[in-house]
Amino acid sequence: MNVGTEWLVDAEGCSAELLRDIDEVRVVCAEVIAELGLRVVGEPMWHQFPRPGGVTGLYLLTESHLACHTFPETGLATFNLYCCRPRPAFAWEERLRALLGASRVTVRIAARGAEAEARGAECETRAGQYSAKLEIQPSFESEVSDSTSAREVSGL
Amino acid sequence: MNVGTEWLVDAEGCSAELLRDIDEVRVVCAEVIAELGLRVVGEPMWHQFPRPGGVTGLYLLTESHLACHTFPETGLATFNLYCCRPRPAFAWEERLRALLGASRVTVRIAARGAEAEARGAECETRAGQYSAKLEIQPSFESEVSDSTSAREVSGL
Question: B121-127 long-range contacts, Cβ below 8 Å, gap at least 24?
Answer without folding.
Answer: B123/A123, B123/A134, B123/A137, B123/A138, B123/A140, B125/A118, B125/A136, B125/A137, B125/A138, B126/B152, B126/B154, B127/A118, B127/A119
